[in-house]
Amino acid sequence: AEHGVLVNAMHVGLIDSDQWVRRHAADPNAGSYEQYIAAMAAERKIPLGRIGRAEEFANMACFLASDAASYITGVSINVDGGASPVV
């Protein structure tokens, strides 16, 4: 920080991606894709009740890279729908 370098960590949670689309396609008992990802969120007990979208993770990255985050450094941010609450 003393050199003007901001360093933050982002920890990704369960995010909808082609990885899950492929796994769904390979599972003959999966049902619809919406059911498949809803079941993943329920199984992992994600407090927001759903898996995230890639743009939600990207939005946090863009915020941290923007001037709006110029006073934020040394933090670890969980982008995971509340799955890893800070206690």
Structure characteristics:
two-stranded parallel sheet, 3 helices, alpha+beta, 9% strand
Task: Describe what you observe in this structure.
The chain is of the alpha+beta class and 87 residues long. It contains three helices and two strands, in the order βαααβ. Strands 1-2 form a two-stranded parallel ribbon. The mean pLDDT is 94.
- Unreliably modeled segments: none
Helix amount = 25-40%
- Give the distance, in angstroms, between the N- and C-terminal Cα atoms: 26 Å
Topology pattern, helix = H, strand = E: EHHHE
Rounded to an integer in angstroms, the radius of gyration calculated over CA atoms is 16 Å
Write the layout of secondary structure elements.
Layout: E1 9-12, H1 18-26, H2 33-43, H3 54-65, E2 76-79
Parallel strand pairs: 1-2
